[in-house]
Amino acid sequence: MDHHATLLARAFETLTRDGVDAAAALLTPDFIANIPGAPAPLHGRDAWAIGVRNMLAAFPDLSITIEDAIEQDDKVAVRVRFRGTHGGPFQGIGATHRPIEFTSLELYRIEGELIAEEWVHPDIPTLMRQIS
Predict the structure, then answer these.
(1) Which of 1, 12, 35, 81 is a Cys-bridge partner for 64, taking CB atoms 3.0 to 4.6 Å apart?
(2) Which run of H or of E encompasses 25?
């Protein structure tokens, strides 16, 4: 794994092992999150943390694995696999306690040793089929 992909792997591991605040420390203070369907990019660590906390509340045992990574200059593209159990409400659906597994294609921009921006495209239709 190249340098930027290693940083992302560390961020995902930190998130699942040490929590949202520890992972947020690996983001630039002015971090930008580009989320499908959002009317505008989200700005800052706090905005990122809200979305991640919601996801972890719905899938408390979530694991994240980088399956592929391609780096160029200050960017790294990854194919990520999420696995977990639906243990809390998600998009209006109460906990089903069913296992979930879905992928996401993600692009990150790195500044120094911190993650500065993300563009994520999770396979939400596959996730929703598993909990509906």
Answers:
(1) 12
(2) none
pLDDT digits (tens, 9 = 90+) for 70-127: 999 999 999 999 999 999 999 999 999 999 999 999 999 999 999 999 999 999 999 9
Nearest to 64 by CA among 87, 82, 85, 84: 82
Say what the pTM is. 0.93
* Domains (range + CATH), the chain: 3-131 (3.10.450.50)
Structure tokens that stand for 106 in this block: 């993600």
Bridge-based pairing state of the strands 114-122 and 27-34: parallel
pLDDT, tens only, 20-41: 999 999 999 999 999 998 999 9
Please state the φ and ψ torsions of residue 37, each to the nearest 5 degrees.
85, -15
